[in-house]
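Record 1 of the preview.
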Amino acid sequence: MKKLSMDELDRKTVDEFKRSEKFPVVVVLENIRSMHNVGSVFRTADAFLIEAIYICGYTAQPPRKEIDKTALGATETVEWKYFPCTKDAVEELRKNEYKIFAIEQVNKSISLEKFTEANTDKVALIFGNEVSGVETETISLCDGCIEIPQFGMKHSLNISVAAGIVLWEIIRTGIFGINKINGI
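->
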């Protein structure tokens, strides 16, 4: 085995990325405290060709040094939009025919590995605050909740880790028919 060089990775330029067809997934970040977490989600969204990130509430917006530290340029490739209130983001998503799911542990959540169909071609995923999660009011606006199975004591994941797991699983399994891009 040989580690690939940067030239061998066939990375897109910023312009190529912007012209690329994206997976019809919007990530919604609700009241995320850590700018490093925000940057990490941008980087993951870039890696998986996610359509956009909606930043809500007191979640920090680019450009910020702390976001850029972990985003590594992804704030220049991934489209993003700010909403003072998550409800406004949800309303815009509804108008554009997205199905909306909070990533949260609730009494009727769908386990991620069983989340196979949402009867839509477009999905929005809401990730909440590092301590309190997705707000109850926001959950009431969603079509459902997705829960990542966990088996240890904590039953809690860092938001950037949770985003990576959920986004990869949705792309990998081809949920919503979105596996047609790049032969996935």
